[in-house]
Specification:
By secondary structure, the protein is α/β, with parallel strands linked by helices. It is built from twelve helices and nine strands. The mean pLDDT is about 95.
Length: about 300
């Protein structure tokens, strides 16, 4: 069975939590650590959620680190309207029993990548790219340890502005540092992830796995109940971040093309836009694989199968 060592950089987040559980239910993946980053919510709640989700899966041994509490640029992201005030929608988990590690998450990234064999660690970026950009600035030599950086972000359109997707828009300066680094990048954009939406049948398939993690994921996949009587509930969100992990596990579920990706950081109108240049040849040469299609039912079958492996 193929084996891949990964670090998950994350801001849980409903779909982040599903992605973390998918990774923990997959023996092909060795999760070396989780690094929290401010994004969907501030650093304290996303750090708490990262620890709570790993403990739900019976993996309190996985180290969890606090990363950057704010973006490099001036924007301060907040997606509580989509994820709920606690970040996990309808799902309520007890506070983690294991405290996060005292080492800063960026220091963990730098140390781990420097100590790694060349091209041996895969970085999974599920939130704003603040931590990864900061690590690249502080330790540019760490690129040697990276096998692949898989990013959920960007697209041909936006979801927080007409031009920009949330993760990139939350810290476009950090995103520019990362894409300019010429790391081997796979980009999982909105064009793909917005197709991965939960239906009653897909939720039932996951719940039928019969484990507590399957039940938790089914709750995360379900439309959010109204906060108060008489208020409308929110529809189930697209499962953006699990596509990063699904791609690592089953790349045949996806297809894409190589492209050059640049990030807009100057224009107020298009701040955070991902400019995807697929021209061939394009100067300079393409450095990212940009995913374009997904087998949605295949992703949900994979999710249900892997939830059956967890407690």
């Amino acid at each position: 069975m193929p084996h891949r060592r990964i670090i998950i950089d994350t801001d849980p987040g409903i779909d982040d939590a599903v992605a973390i559980l998918l990774a923990l239910g997959s023996p092909e993946l060795e999760v070396a650590g989780l690094v929290a980053v401010a994004g969907n919510l501030g650093i304290a709640p996303v750090l708490r959620n990262a620890g709570a989700v790993t403990e739900l899966a019976g993996r309190g041994d996985i180290p969890v680190y606090a990363g950057c509490p704010r973006p490099i640029g001036p924007l301060q992201p907040d997606a509580a309207a989509a994820h709920g005030e606690e970040g996990l929608g309808n799902l309520v988990l007890p506070p983690p029993a294991v405290a996060p590690r005292s080492q800063h998450g960026v220091a963990f990234l730098i140390e781990t990548l420097r100590d790694a064999e060349p091209h041996s660690l895969t970085l999974c970026a599920l939130g704003p790219l603040t931590n990864i950009a900061t690590a690249l600035v502080m330790g540019p030599d760490i690129t040697r340890g990276v096998a692949e950086l898989v990013i959920m972000g960007g697209g041909s359109h936006g979801n927080v502005t007409p031009a920009a997707e949330f993760n990139i828009h939350a810290d476009p300066q950090a995103a520019r540092v990362v894409f300019d680094s010429l790391l081997p990048i796979t980009l999982v954009p909105l064009d793909v992830t917005e197709q991965v939406r939960s239906t009653a049948e897909r939720i039932a398939m996951v719940r039928a796995a019969g484990t507590r993690c399957a039940e938790a994921v089914a709750e995360l996949l379900s439309p959010q109940r109204p906060a108060a009587p008489g208020q409308p509930g929110r529809p189930a969100m697209a499962m953006h971040d699990p596509c990063v992990i699904a791609y690592l596990l089953a790349p045949g579920l996806f297809s894409g093309r190589r492209a050059r990706v640049a990030i807009e950081t100057a224009s107020p109108l298009t701040l955070g836009m991902t400019v995807i240049d697929r021209r061939s040849p394009s100067p300079p040469p393409p450095h990212a694989l940009v995913l374009e299609t997904v087998d949605v039912d295949g992703v949900y079958r994979l999710l249900a199968e892997r939830m059956a492996r967890l407690p």
